[in-house]
Amino acid sequence: MCRSIKTLRPPALPEEATEEEIRAAALQYVRKVSGFRAPAAHNQEVFEQAVEAIAEATAELLGGLEVRGAAARR
């Protein structure tokens, strides 16, 4: 969907994704879905809430994934 969002799980990354990487992916997603690179002042709060919610969901997803064979590839 959005080419700027990179895969954040092993083996695509050699180690766990950082909070910055997760937030950057969430921001790209919200930008793509909303159609706004930077929201107007009256939309700033809801834009930031969406980024935070998606970043939290992404961190939860990455924390719960079991990647079989990832340790063997390292």
Features:
74 residues, elongated, single chain, 3 helices
Produce the secondary structure layout.
Elements (H helix, E strand, L loop, with lengths): L18 H16 L9 H21 L5 H4 L1
Protein name: DUF2277 domain-containing protein
Pfam family, one: DUF2277
Give the SSE order as H and E letters. Answer: HHH
Beta strand count: 0
Unreliable stretches covering 5 or more consecutive residues:
none
The portion of residues assigned to helices is 55-70%
* C-alpha-based Rg, rounded: 14 Å
The largest pleated sheet is described as: none
Structural class, judged by helices and strands? mainly alpha
Kindly give the count of domains.
Answer: 1
Shape: elongated
Number of helices: 3
What integer is the average pLDDT? 87
| Cα-to-Cα separation, first versus last residue | 29 Å
Oligomeric status: single chain
The amount of beta strand, in percent, is under 5%
In short:
The protein has 74 residues and is mostly helical. The chain has three helices and no strands.
